[in-house]
Design a protein that fits this description.
Radius of gyration: 55 Å
Structural class: alpha+beta
Helix content: 55-70%
Largest sheet: 4 strands, antiparallel
Number of helices: 9
Length: 314
């Protein structure tokens, strides 16, 4: 009898413990709970931390996160309004604000993530397709910093924007929250993580940039060659001017020297008739020396000045 009584007490204690464990549940500060009975929610959601009770075995606790949660979108290829295909990578932060409504609509966080994919990806695609690329990558209008002569040649300018990246993010956030208002959640923040050209467009952009820079380099090169030709022309002109001026001065000096030498000769040989004859003879000999050689034949008249010296030599 004692043994049976002991077994009964042990079994009863175990059953009581199981019942107690099934009846009591703890809600942490980071959690919120929805009680369901046969799969249907019962009462209001428990959002305050503490010890709570439920009907054992019949009711079930469904825990949901109270803290901010992360949504990370997949990079998608999206066309802009100006027909430029870009990859858009986004992320967001969201929170369960109505656990009971969330359970009715989403059941769990996995279902919420899938629903957010549809909402945020769809809104991102719609708003990107309705605006030009500049609206998604720039936040405000500004004057571009000067990049020197090259920038001036390719006309570095920034197109004026009316919306901008931050405003575009805000509009997507508002529109997404409007579509998610009956899901028991709120989207707290939405951001573009990265925006980039698709590979084909990037290659075209790089090729266009290379062509533009090559064109600028060719222009600089041709301008440099033209400037070099101009400098060389000026150099040659100045060199010829200097040479002609030097030649003129040299001829003037030589002329003055010859005139002075002729004056000296004249004053030296014009003193007597004998000296004059000697001067005429010397000049005639110089003429013979510079004019004739052993192969020269000459015909002279009898009244030629040179003939009288040849005749006297004979």
């Amino acid at each position: 009898m004692k043994k049976n009584k002991l077994i009964f007490l042990i079994v009863t204690s175990v059953i009581l413990l199981i019942v107690v464990f099934q009846s009591v549940y703890i809600v942490k500060e980071t959690e919120q709970v929805v009680i369901t009975q046969f799969g249907k929610p019962v009462g209001e959601a428990i959002t305050e931390p503490g010890l709570n009770f439920k009907t054992p075995f019949i009711q079930k606790t469904n825990y949901f996160e109270k803290r901010y949660m992360e949504w990370d979108g997949d990079p998608n290829q999206v066309p802009t309004k100006d027909k430029k295909f870009i990859f858009v990578d986004t992320y967001a932060r969201w929170q369960i604000t109505d656990p009971l409504q969330f359970f009715k609509r989403m059941t769990n966080e996995r279902g919420a993530q899938s629903r957010l994919d549809d909402i945020l990806d769809g809104e991102t695609r719609d708003y990107i397709a309705a605006h030009n690329l500049e609206e998604a990558v720039r936040s405000h209008n500004r004057v571009p910093a000067s990049s020197g002569a090259t920038g001036e040649m390719i006309s570095d300018t920034l197109a004026q924007i009316s919306v901008g990246r931050q405003e575009l993010q805000r509009m997507i956030l508002m529109s997404a929250n409007e579509k998610a208002k009956d899901l028991g959640i709120v989207i707290l923040d939405f951001r573009f993580k990265r925006i980039n050209y698709v590979q084909e467009v990037s290659a075209q952009v790089y090729e266009r940039m290379k062509s533009e820079r090559f064109r600028i380099a060719d222009k600089f090169r041709s301008e440099g060659q033209g400037e070099a030709s101009r400098i060389n022309g000026e150099k040659e002109r100045e060199l010829k001017t200097i040479q002609s001026e030097a030649f003129r001065k040299a001829e003037e000096i030589k002329g003055k020297a010859d005139a002075k030498a002729a004056g000296i000769y004249a004053s030296a040989y014009d003193q007597t008739s004998t000296s004059r004859e000697l001067y005429g003879f010397l000049k005639s000999m110089e003429t013979f020396e510079t004019t004739f050689d052993t192969t020269t034949s000459v015909i002279l008249s009898t009244d030629n000045e040179l003939f009288k010296y040849l005749k006297s030599m004979k």
